Amino acid sequence: MNKYIISFILLVAFSVSGISQKVSFYNFEQLPKVINENLKKVQQDKPFATLNELKANCVTAQYEQGINYTNLPKANKKVLKTKDLVQTIKPTSLVLCKLKRGFGMYEDFVLIGASAVVISEDGLCVSNYHVFESLINEGQSMMPQDSLFFAADSHGNVYEVTGVKSYSKSGDLALFTIDTRGAKLACAPLGNDLEVGENVHTMTAPNQQAYYYTQGIVARNSGFDNNPWENRSEITADFAIGSSGGPVFDDRGNLVSIVSSTTSVYAGNGNSRDWQMVMKLCIPVSSVKKLVN
């Protein structure tokens, strides 16, 4: 009898292992078009602020001053499997977009230009100063082709950027708000700075390739004695142009840094220069916390 039971269990086990997992494939090339269609619908109900109107709400932002904000989620304690982690962090990640004018030569279109992360369910977000620089800096003019600046999620839902609350130029951080239209958004809890060798995970939009996941480790933590805003966490997880402002998470799904920039390393001089590696610099979450009391 036991022999038959064991045979049955083995048969079931092999049958289950043979069941293929259903994997979703999405045409991300269509995301800007989906975003554009949703933008048109939302604009009919309540038009987003023009760039000049938005700039007026950004130039008054506090410089390297913490805002009093208590509606932040507590840090996660449970280590997640990678597949579960990706599903957790994806809804908290945003792409920052511009509506570009066609000037009658072609239709207006949406350009995904940078990344961001939601840190409170009512729409407080973080990205880079250099992403918002033309809006924060009163002396910088806007590009004539740019019509609107707004955020979008992986489903193509669009959110009006309503203003910058606080920022740091040397910290390359901008704390901004979006209009959730009453919805409670998925948001990333603030974690802690990580030591060298600890795991990191990113969800960004390199070269307009939205919601691209990479993983790696902290390679080095570098700092400057005279300006802690210039502290940087250097990681091995890949990112590129368009990833600016994107979130970096720990194994628990907590925000641990913000993508900032890359530095390419070359060997040789002049025409004989050979590319060797790319160093990837991020803003540690301790700097983000300085902007949120």
Please render the helix and strand layout as text:
Elements: H1 2-17, H2 31-45, H3 51-58, E1 62-63, H4 82-89, E2 93-100, E3 109-118, E4 124-127, H5 129-136, E5 146-152, E6 158-168, E7 173-179, E8 199-204, E9 212-222, E10 232-235, E11 247-249, E12 255-267, E13 274-284, H6 285-291
Parallel strand pairs: 1-6
Antiparallel strand pairs: 2-3, 2-5, 3-4, 4-7, 5-6, 6-7, 8-9, 8-11, 9-10, 10-13, 11-12, 12-13
GO biological process, one term: proteolysis
Pfam families: Trypsin_2 (PF13365)
Keywords: Hydrolase, Protease
Give a verbal description of the structure.
By secondary structure, this protein is of the alpha+beta class. The protein folds into two domains: 142 residues, Thrombin, subunit H, CATH 2.40.10.10; 88 residues, Trypsin-like serine proteases (Thrombin, subunit H, Beta Barrel), CATH 2.40.10.10. Helices cover 21% and strands 33% of the residues. The protein contains six helices and 13 strands. The strands form two sheets. A six-stranded antiparallel beta barrel has the order 2-3-4-7-6-5, surrounded by four helices. The chain is globular, with a radius of gyration of 22 Å. 35% of the residues are buried.
At the fourth level of CATH, the homologous superfamily of the largest domain is Trypsin-like serine proteases
Secondary structure category? alpha+beta
Name the helicity range.
10-25%
Query: Might you state the CATH topology name of the largest domain?
Result: Thrombin, subunit H
* Proportion of strand residues: 25-35%
- Poorly predicted parts: none
Rounded radius of gyration (Å): 22 Å
Q: How many separate structural domains?
A: 2
Protein name: Serine protease
Organism: Plebeiibacterium sediminum
GO molecular function, one term: peptidase activity
Keywords: Hydrolase, Protease
